[in-house]
Amino acid sequence: MSDSITCPNCHTEIPLTEAISHEVEERLHIEFDEARRKAESEYAEALALKDADHQSQVAAARAEVMAAAEARASEKVATELGDLSARLEEQASLRRDAEKRELALRKEKRALQADREALELEVERKLDEQRTQLVSSTTERVEEAYRMKLREKDLTLEQMGKRIDALQAAADQKRSGLQGEVLEREIEDVLRESFPADGITPVKTGKRGADVLQRVRSPRGLDCGALLWESKNAKHWNSAWVAKLRSDQQAERADIAIIVTPALPEGVNRMAFHDGVWICDFASATTLATALRHALVEIAQSRVVDSNRSQALNEVYEYLCGREFQHRVTNLVAAALVMKEDLDAERRASERSLAKREKQIDMLLRNSAGMYGELQAIVGGALQPVAALELTPGASEGEEPLALAS
């Protein structure tokens, strides 16, 4: 169908959309069909007339009816085209108005966007200006306050320096004793926490001797020996500590003596055995105590075993010579004999079953070889050879194949 129609009056091409064209086309088809049916009905009525005179009238009536129908159709088409043109003009006008309103709205939107951006820029400028002023004034106040604090701090430091110099002399006299006592308490707490079963006995302040005595006990409560601990918080090693601790060890009858100090002798790294005593730093004290405790417990248990060895040997000898051992050995031998009889019975039953199966397999192989020989004699070379049933090289004709002989 064409995208436009021609006005019958002014012969102007009018564009049609698909929907409008379809609507007009259907309406014209309906009206034309109605006019055609009406004309055919009238024509059928005219044909019913039999008189020859009426034939011309019928033809004239038919032509008149067809002309009238065409005139009405043309008039209807013209009316529809006029209405369609008016509707198209109205739609075009509405579209132009909508485009104008959209263009105006877009212009207003761009203007509002520009105004908003200008306003945001102005606000940012004012904020930057106020921020700069605030930072400048705040910086001046902070600098002035900082200068005042610096002057106050210098004065305070000067006064504190004088007080520190006065207190330093008094503190130096007590520091050594306090630090040694702190290290002693720390060693005591570590030993109590690590070895709760041992007896930890601190030496009272002012009493001559070492710092802590540790009585080592095994898991069964056996007294296995003693460890004597001496703490020294000093910057330099003093060899006189060893002689003094060895004297304290004899007085306390301790098995092992240990000195805990950050000032280790030259050549000692963390821990070492030096001049009859153990020396270590504080970080290695727990590890050294664990190892020494283990050695004391092992030695104590070995002593107990040695003391009970002769008694244990006598008890074992009496047990071996007694009736109870004889009964146990007799029961073991009887159980072994029963198990052997069961095993022999199972072996004999298995041998019978294996011999029976071996005879059946030999019979099957002999029958297969006989059938293969008979077929070979009948068919000849056409029969495919079976390697397991063929004679091996060097075997005589009367001998069986190796597969059968096995």
What labels would you give this structure?
single chain, alpha/beta, six-stranded mixed sheet, two-stranded antiparallel sheet, 70% helix, disordered C terminus
SSE topology sketch:
Elements: E1 4-6, E2 13-15, H1 18-47, H2 53-194, E3 199-202, E4 212-217, E5 223-231, H3 240-252, E6 256-260, E7 271-274, E8 277-280, H4 285-321, H5 323-379, H6 402-405
Parallel strand pairs: 5-6, 6-8
Antiparallel strand pairs: 1-2, 3-4, 4-5, 7-8
Helix pairs in contact: 1-2
Strand order of the largest sheet: 3-4-5-6-8-7
Proportion in β-strands: 5-15%
End-to-end distance:
101 Å
User: Helix coverage percent of residues?
Assistant: 55-70%
Q: For the residues shown, what is the average pLDDT?
A: 77
Spell out the helices and strands N to C.
Answer: EEHHEEEHEEEHHH
Structural category is alpha/beta
Largest sheet: 6 strands, mixed
Q: Tell me the radius of gyration.
A: 64 Å
Shape descriptor: flat
In DSSP terms, counting alpha (H) and pi (I) runs of 4 or more, how many helices? Answer: 6
Q: Unreliable segments (pLDDT under 50, ≥5 consecutive)?
A: 394-406
Count every beta strand, where a strand is a DSSP E run of 2 or more residues: 8
